[in-house]
Specification:
Layout lengths: L13 H5 L13 E4 L6 H17 L5 E6 L5 H14 L3 E7 L2 H10 L4 E5 L8 E7 L8 H12 L10 E4 L3 H10 L9 E5 L9 H7 L3 E5 L17 H14 L3 E5 L6 E5 L4 E2 L1 H15 L4 E5 L5 H4 L1 H5 L3 E5 L3 H11 L3 E3 L5 E3 L10 H14 L5 H6 L5 E2 L12 H17 L3 E2 L2 E7 L4 E5 L4 E6 L6 E7 L3 H15 L13
Parallel strand pairs: 2-3, 2-4, 3-6, 7-8, 7-9, 12-13, 12-14
Antiparallel strand pairs: 1-5, 4-5, 9-10, 10-11, 14-15, 16-21, 17-18, 18-19, 19-20, 20-21
Helix pairs in contact: 2-3, 2-5, 4-6
Keywords: Isomerase, Magnesium, Metal-binding, Phosphoprotein
Family: Belongs to the phosphohexose mutase family.
Pfam family, one: PGM_PMM_II
C-alpha cells in the first residue's frame, strides 16, 4: 500500500527518501505547482501520477495519456516519477520527451490520446516544477478536477491496476513542426527577433519561423536551464527590454518572446515599444474580425477595455466576453461559446477553428502576428499599435502573499471596495461606476480608468493591473489608490515590479 503523502519532510533524511511529500497548496485552481524538494519530492510526484490515473478511471476516460517535459535540470526525473505512478494505475503512457506544452496538447490530437500531463513550471523561477493536465482535449483541468485530484492524492485513495504500458514516441517534434509549417509561406521574409530566454522554445521556435519564410534573429535560443540572463517570461520587463534592444540593434520588424514552455508569446514592435499581450490581442481581433465578421472573442478580466469600446471591432460586429483569468478558464470558455479566439493579458492565446484547435500555443500566436503583418504590407507593427485608441496600462504587478491566505485577502479587498461604492466614496478622486467580481475585483471609475486585484493561481502572490484611457497621470493615481487599499492588509508583501 502506497503511503499517504505528508505536507513536510526534512531533506537528507531516511523519511524523505521513504515517504511521499506533497504540500497541499501545490494543487492550484487549474495547474499543479510546487518548489521541488521543498514542497514535493519524487515519491510525491509518483503519488500525483497515481492520482491522475485514478481520476481517469473515475471519469471513464480511456487509459491513455501523453506525457512530456520542459527543459529544466530536474524535469526529466520528475516526469519519470509521474510515469511510474501512471503505470501503477494501469495507464498507457505515450512519452513525447522534451517538449513545449502546446506540443503535448497537439499530441493528444495527433496520437489520438484523450489525456495529457505536461511536466513544466512554465515561466516560474528555477526550483519550481508542476504539471499541466487534461483528460478532455483541448481542455485542461479546472477547479473541479483539481479539487478531486487533490483529495485522491492527499488521502492516498488510489485505484491501482495492472496493464499499464510505456511507449516512447520517437521524433515527435517533427510531426508538430510539420503541422505548423505545412501551409503557404509568408509573402515576404519578415525580419523578426525570436527571444527564448534559454528555455524550451529555443529548440523549436527559430526553426519553425524560418520554415515559414521569416528572417529570424535568435536571441537567447541556446538551451540553458540555469536561465543565465532572465526567466523566460514575456511579461518580465527584463526579457522585454532585452528583446527591445535586439530589435532596435538589428532593425527587425517585430520581436517575439516565448515563455519557458512555449505556450505564450510576447511582442515588441519595430520601434522597440513593448506591446502588452492584451493590446496585441485587440490588434489580432481587428485583423481576424475583418476576415470573419461577427467574430466572438473571450478575454480575461486583466485585459484592456478596448475589446468592448474599439470602434473597428464594433464596425466588424465583434462581440467580446470577459471571463476569469487563467489558461484553463479561458480555454474552457472559448470552447463553450465557440469563440474564434480567447486572449489573456499574460499572453496565452487560444485560437479555435479554423485557425487552431482551441489550446494555447505561442507559435500559433506568433504565426498569427506574422500573418497580420503579411496582410498589412503598408503598415509596420508600430503603425498597427498606433491605430488603436490610446490607453495607458501597467504590466502585471505581483505583491507577495502566502498561498494559505491570499484568497482571504482578496475577499477583504472586495468587501472594502464594495463598501466604498455603497457609501459613494471616490477612489483617486473619481466615482466608482462598476465593480466586476468574476475573478477578484475590477474597480471601474467614471472616466474608464480601472484597477484589478486578484489572487495568482500559480504562485504565492496577488495580481494587480491598472489601465486608464484618460492619461498616464490617472494610471499612476489609480495604482496608488488601489495599493493603499491593499496596504490595509499587512500580510501583503513587496511587488515583483511596479509602475
Amino acid at each position: 500500500m502506497f503511503p499517504k503523502p505528508e505536507a513536510h519532510l526534512k531533506p537528507n533524511t531516511y523519511a524523505y527518501e521513504s515517504r511521499p511529500m506533497v504540500k497541499p497548496t501545490g494543487f492550484r485552481e487549474y495547474d499543479a505547482r510546487w518548489l521541488f524538494e521543498k514542497e514535493i519530492n519524487l515519491m510525491g510526484m509518483q503519488a500525483l501520477g497515481m492520482g491522475i490515473g485514478t481520476l481517469m478511471h473515475e471519469r471513464g476516460v480511456r487509459p491513455d495519456i501523453v506525457v512530456g517535459h520542459d527543459f529544466r535540470g530536474y524535469s526529466a526525473s520528475i516526469k519519470m516519477a509521474v510515469i511510474n505512478g501512471l503505470l501503477a494505475a494501469g495507464i498507457n503512457v505515450h512519452d513525447i520527451g522534451l517538449a513545449l506544452s502546446p506540443m503535448a496538447y497537439f499530441a493528444q490530437f495527433a496520437l489520438d490520446v484523450p489525456a495529457v500531463a505536461m511536466i513544466t513550471a512554465s515561466h516560474n523561477d528555477n526550483g519550481w516544477t508542476g504539471v499541466k493536465m487534461g483528460i478532455n482535449r483541448p481542455l485542461t483541468f479546472g477547479p473541479d478536477e483539481m479539487g478531486r485530484l487533490k483529495d485522491i492524492v492527499l488521502n492516498a485513495a488510489f485505484t491501482l491496476k495492472q496493464g499499464g504500458s510505456y511507449r516512447y514516441v520517437e521524433n515527435f517534434p517533427d510531426i508538430y513542426i510539420k503541422d505548423l509549417t505545412d501551409r503557404a509561406k509568408l509573402k515576404r521574409p519578415i525580419k523578426i527577433v525570436a527571444a527564448c530566454g534559454n528555455g524550451t522554445a529555443g529548440a523549436f521556435a527559430p526553426r519553425i519561423l524560418e520554415m515559414l519564410g521569416a528572417e529570424v534573429i535568435p536571441l537567447d535560443a541556446e538551451l540553458d536551464h540555469t536561465f543565465p540572463r532572465y526567466n523566460p517570461n514575456p511579461e518580465d520587463m527584463k526579457m522585454l527590454h532585452a528583446l527591445r534592444d535586439k530589435v532596435l540593434e538589428t532593425g527587425a520588424e517585430v520581436g517575439l518572446g516565448f515563455d519557458g514552455d512555449g505556450d505564450r508569446c510576447g511582442v515588441v514592435d519595430n520601434e522597440g515599444e513593448e506591446i502588452f499581450a492584451d493590446k496585441v490581442g485587440v490588434m489580432l481581433a481587428r485583423d481576424i474580425s475583418a476576415i470573419y465578421p461577427n467574430s466572438k472573442f473571450v478575454v480575461d478580466v486583466k485585459s484592456t477595455g478596448l475589446f468592448n469600446t474599439d470602434p473597428v471591432l464594433k464596425a466588424n460586429g465583434a462581440v467580446t466576453d470577459y471571463f476569469k483569468t487563467g489558461h484553463s478558464y479561458i480555454k474552457r470558455r472559448v470552447t463553450e461559446l465557440n469563440a474564434i479566439v480567447g486572449f489573456e493579458k499574460s499572453g496565452h492565446y487560444f485560437f479555435n477553428a479554423p485557425i487552431g484547435r482551441g489550446y494555447d500555443d505561442g507559435l500559433v500566436s506568433a504565426i498569427a502576428i506574422l500573418d497580420m503583418l503579411d496582410r498589412n504590407p503598408g503598415k509596420t507593427m508600430a503603425d498597427l499599435r498606433r491605430d488603436l485608441p490610446k490607453t495607458w496600462g501597467s504590466p502585471t504587478m505581483s505583491p507577495h502573499c502566502d498561498d494559505e491566505i491570499k484568497y482571504g485577502i482578496v475577499d477583504k479587498v472586495i468587501a472594502r471596495f464594495q463598501d466604498m461604492k455603497a457609501k459613494g466614496e471616490k477612489i483617486a478622486g473619481h466615482a466608482i461606476t462598476d465593480l466586476i467580481t468574476v475573478n477578484g475585483i475590477r474597480v471601474v471609475t467614471e472616466d474608464g480608468t480601472w484597477g484589478l486585484v486578484r489572487a495568482s493561481s500559480n504562485k504565492p502572490e496577488l495580481v494587480v493591473v491598472i489601465e486608464s484611457p484618460a492619461s498616464e497621470a490617472r494610471l499612476h493615481e489609480m495604482f496608488k489608490a488601489v495599493d493603499a487599499v491593499l496596504r490595509e492588509n499587512p500580510e501583503v508583501g513587496a511587488y515583483n515590479q511596479t509602475i
